Amino acid sequence: MTGTPTHCPYCALQCGMTLDGGAPAGGMSATSASAGGAPVRVAPRDDVPANRGGLCQKGWTAAELLSVPDRLTTPLMRRTRDAPLEPCTWDEALDRIVSGIGRLAAEHGPDAVAVFGGGGLTNEKAYQLGKFARVALRTSQIDYNGRFCMSSAAAASGRAFGMDRGLPGPVTDLAASGAVLLAGGNPAETMPPFMRHLADMRDGGGALIVVDPRRTATARQADLHLQPAAGTDIALANGLLHLALAEGLADEEYIAARTSGFDAVRTVANAYWPDRVERITGVPLPKMREAVRLLAGADRAHVLTARGSEQHARGTDMVSGFINLALALGLPGRPGSGYGCLTGQGNGQGGREHGQKADQLPGYRKIDDPAARAHVAAVWGVDPDALPGPGRSAYELLSALGTPDGPKAMLLFGSNPVVSAPRAASVEERLGALDLLVVADFVPSETARLADVVLPTAQWAEESGTMTNLEGRVLRRRRAVSAPDGVRTDLEIIAALAGRLGAPGEWSTDPERVFGELRRASAGGVADYSGITYERIEAEGGVFWPCPSEDHPGTPRPYLDRFPTPDGRARFVAVEHHGAAEDVDAEYPLYLTTGRVLAQYQSGAQTRRVRALADAAPGPFVELHPDLAERLGVEDGQDVKVESRRGTATAAARVTDAIRRDTVFMPFHWAGEGRANLLTGTALDPVSRMPEFKVCAVRISA
Ligand code: SF4
After folding, report:
1. Shortest-distance Cα residue to atom 5 of ligand 1
2. Residue 617 DSSP class
3. Index of the ligand 1 atom closest to the CA of residue 192
4. For ligand 1, atom 6, which residue shows the shortest CA distance?
5. Does residue 429 share a domain with residue 284?
6. Which of 326, 519, 539, 655 is the most buried (most CB within 10 A)?
7. What tens digit of pLDDT does each residue of 662-697 get?
């Protein structure tokens, strides 16, 4: 292997790659120019189990991010409220931020200043950002875009297992599985190298069962596709459990020995008769029966969920429905089996463990737990009573901006909510009206363009740190190229602001030193990193948390002996079908569901700037069934208007029988009038506070 070994800048699979400045070799590499003009070559690593020599189109073209034409290399500032953004010095930018924060906090209290983070930030940045909010700003108002991603799976896993950690074991365990039920995930487009593990499973005789309202690229590779109506997963999961019980397929011995709360779930499941479930979901009984028999008949099996089953106003209950099924079949804690979540963002797993969530402190500790506060405050060298309490969740925070009781300023790192938040036009308006909006990014995203101050940052290959992938494996991201003159790392920005604010404690700009503090802060917590060092990650190719000491091997497969709940048992949670928060009616007769495409990533701020990806996926579209298109008089490729109660979007029609007749689909990666999140609703899950991205009612016109 030549070059610097590191990982892809995008999704949670964190495929291994090397970056170097050499010439392409044998056509098996992709090159681009770094910001300094030297060519940078990407090659996949075959020593990383997640991708084993594979990359998707996004990974192959990742080096082009280093030379995007509109790369930010100087701070920008508006001299007056309505003035355009203009270049300024770092001192001018930082002074403006600190004076604005000081004025607003003095007038309105520390909660007048909010912080918004991202699931793509390294562990070190996520940790430092949470500390910065609580110690330097003393604000409770911090949350991050991961709330929009997998927070329902996190909440459901926490209440079932006492812990939330992506997959139940190394991703390579999937190859030996006899059956995988994947609900609401489309890895064939979102993380294609993951499909190799499922292909290995199928080559070994295992079966892939996909639950999705669309016949996605993943569903086309499945042995069985259950195509429920959008928002009906709880009914489907309860119906599958009903059939498992009716056919005597539940693992009663496991249920008695390792779980609690099953009686209430059995009672609920008994009421989900097959004909009732067929009526609610539209999934035929034979398909449901086949799914249950495949799962129950396998020695090893997995139940996995992703955004399609999580981004709902009842997303936590939806995931609990699938966890109940997995528990009834005795999967969690059985070697090579279990329940898992396909986390989406690059550091979606680590990003939720170190304190950038409104309700958490590092180590996945609850912020209202006195013992947790005392431990973390001691590491930070502050009085625990000085730490703020829980703040608002992401959408609640964004929708409170500028209200009488809400924040007047926001510092935003690694996120683009103008595109990715629900009811995006309203979020855009609130962000634009703030007294002070500060955005740290390496490109002028749609959110950065609204800011009063823009801080240009280093990006993935220009800095070091750690990422925790969807397996719960902590990985090294290594600096491979120099950052352009004029930019700073997020850690340098946080340290500079903390220094100007007179914050107590250490604010290192060295990622390894920050990781050392993170280890101490996480010690004894659920997500215990205290035994993980940069040297170990290097030597062992990554370390799985929890890892409570340097002589601990890490925990690739948690739950084998006990669950980290007070009594060591996993907990069933009875859940009932409620339907979507906004149902269809005569005025808005179609369900809209939103999602992703292969060549774009999240809000598109990065991937829309990569030529090959922009060529492959140039703009927004609306998928609709041919029968619906005919009824509406819509031709394939024609621009159509999609309206919900919150707004209107325009995009090209893509006519396909891969979608149900009652449902249309839009990817959410684009800005402008094709922005899918102009349409989405703001109903929030009562547990996870996840917005309902996956269902709302719309109408379409030509
Ligand atoms: Fe990058 Fe994810 Fe593609 Fe792998 S699957 S190359 S991590 S975007």
Report:
1. 191
2. S
3. 5
4. 59
5. no
6. 326
7. 999 999 999 999 999 999 999 999 999 999 999 999
